[in-house]
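Hi, here's the filled form for the chain we discussed.

Project: internal
Contact: R.S.
Residues: 202
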Amino acid sequence: MSAETPAQSTGTFDRLRLRFRAWRGHRPFWAGLFTMLGGLPIAYFPYATFKLGTMSIAMATTAGAGSLIIGVLLVTLGLTMWFQYATRIFAGVAAIVLSLVSLVVSNIGGFILGFVFALVGGALAVSWVPGAPPQPQPLPEGGTDEGGAPLAADPDTAILRPVTDEPGAPYRAPESGHRATPDGTPEAAWAADNVNGGSRVG
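And the returned structure, exactly as it came back:
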């Protein structure tokens, strides 16, 4: 792939996936999904008929209408959590109450399956809160950024001084009041050598 090759545009599936991900992140998505999944078995099992060979098994009860109403209400509450998430607390509490009522009315809560899904969905709806938008962090005092590293000095105002206090420093400033030689030795040292018979070259 050369530098002149244009970048491939994002496919339709990727764009739809990103849009769905953004939509899902701003609402109690999983709470609504579990609540609706809980309503389906509660409404279905009282009217279902299973066949084992030539024998038919019907699980309809006298409370079949109540099971249908509970299942439809749970599905409606799940959709409310998705599209009217401002009322998520009311919808979550109502889902928990209906799941408990289904234990008595609808075949032990849709054979425990619908009861568990509706109970988990209601609890997730009550506990869900929208995320706060990110706020810009203020710059801490001391002239450092978020990472704690010092800011670079202004080259127009920075004053660089030699290090003379540390042992083994490569540079030593000449003594004040004496004229230094090119090798950094003070003039007074040469004078002391001349007294003792030494000579100075250069």
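Let me know if anything looks off before we file it.
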